[in-house]
Automatic annotation (TrEMBL):
The chain crosses the membrane at residues 46-74. Keywords: Membrane, Transferase, Transmembrane, Transmembrane helix. This is CDP-alcohol phosphatidyltransferase family protein. Residues 1-25 are annotated as: Disordered. The keyword rRNA processing does not apply. GO terms for cellular component: membrane. GO terms for biological process: phospholipid biosynthetic process. It comes from Dyadobacter psychrotolerans. InterPro entries: CDP-OH_P_trans, CDP-OH_PTrfase_TM_dom. Residues 1-15 have a biased composition (Basic and acidic residues). One of its GO terms (molecular function) is phosphotransferase activity, for other substituted phosphate groups. Pfam families: CDP-OH_P_transf (PF01066).
């Protein structure tokens, strides 16, 4: 479990290996257009610079947390100019968030801690943003009741981001295998957690407990997907997935990736910026609850249907002819 807090010891030295822009991406299937056009090119240049000066991906992630939290603080003000500075800070934070993953792939410098930090970074940003909007709304005349939708929207955001990230990694697992995916499972994480002791590994065990709970939540929401993953590991764990299964899973699952993008950063932030310009930031909470949550529920339902379809096909030994579902 030492790899939880350490960079990969097999990594190449920063700057020793670089890769093309295309190879710094996870997959075109899971990338959103605004990311490919905007955030990834910026992140790639930042990653090249960081590799040159020897900065690690985890350091980049931590810096992004400061810029994201600063953005939330700046959204507290009703001065539009200050809000715009906050918007730029949030955009830069997301560029850094893109850069850390690209840097990790470029330098082969990946770690479990890096994945945990990367996922937690956005939560820190939006905790700051939600608190700022609640306080701002109270200054505008709202009662303390505004904290109710603020907290509900915050919990919704955590769940939406968790499932979007999970489904993306499931997709990458099927089309690229374990080397191209960051898909974890609670069974392996529980074993690693049990090997730690609170007396000797307090910090590592605390982080491992948090991440184990996070993964358990993802798995509990996707029971049919868990059955499919267990069957795939049992049947193809040693030989790898057959090509026709990869092709058919990609064909049926790729349309779902657009929903993971919708409930992630770009869509919510574009609307957040709009309401800040209109000086109606409180609307963001209700957008999160009543627009993005139904999209999450639809995404989960569709993913479970795809998983059930492939579980039946594999367990009955049928050929993998593509069929719409």
């Amino acid at each position: 479990m030492d790899n939880l807090l350490k960079e990969d010891p097999t990594k190449e030295l920063p700057g020793e290996k670089t890769t093309s822009f295309e190879n710094s991406l996870k997959s075109n299937d899971t990338e959103e257009q605004i990311d490919i056009w905007f955030y990834r090119p910026i992140g790639y240049q930042i990653a090249l610079f960081c590799a040159k000066i020897g900065m690690t991906p985890n350091t980049v992630t931590i810096i992004s947390i400061f810029f994201g939290v600063a953005a939330g603080i700046l959204f507290y003000s009703q001065d539009l100019l200050i809000n715009v500075i906050g918007m730029l800070s949030l955009v830069f934070a997301n560029s850094l968030d893109s850069a850390d993953g690209q840097l990790a792939r470029m330098t082969n410098n990946k770690s479990r801690l890096g994945r945990i930090l990367d996922g937690a970074a956005g939560d820190f940003w939006f905790i700051s943003i939600h608190v700022a909007i609640c306080l701002r709304s109270m200054n505008e005349g709202w009662t303390a009741l505004i904290w109710i939708p603020g907290v509900i929207a915050g919990g919704s955001h955590v769940l939406q981001s968790a499932m979007a990230d999970y489904y993306r990694n499931v997709h990458l697992f099927f089309i690229k295998g374990t080397s191209g995916s960051e898909l974890d499972n609670s069974r392996d994480l529980q074993r690693e957690y049990d090997e730690l002791t609170w007396s000797k590994n307090f910090g590592m065990k605390f982080i491992a407990r948090f991440y184990l709970n996070y993964t358990n939540m993802q798995e509990s929401i996707s029971p049919k997907l868990q059955k499919l993953l267990a069957l795939v590991r049992e049947k193809y764990g040693k030989t790898g997935l057959p090509q026709n299964l990869i092709v058919d899973f990609r064909a049926q699952n790729k349309p779902l990736m657009k929903y993971t993008n919708i409930i992630q950063f770009n869509t919510r932030v574009l609307f957040l910026f709009l309401w800040l310009f209109l000086d109606q930031a409180w609307i963001y909470f209700f957008f999160d609850i009543f627009i993005l949550n139904p999209i999450l529920m639809y995404m989960v339902t569709r993913q479970e249907k795809v998983s059930g379809y492939f579980y039946e096909k594999i367990s009955t030994g049928n050929n993998y002819g593509f069929k719409g579902i």
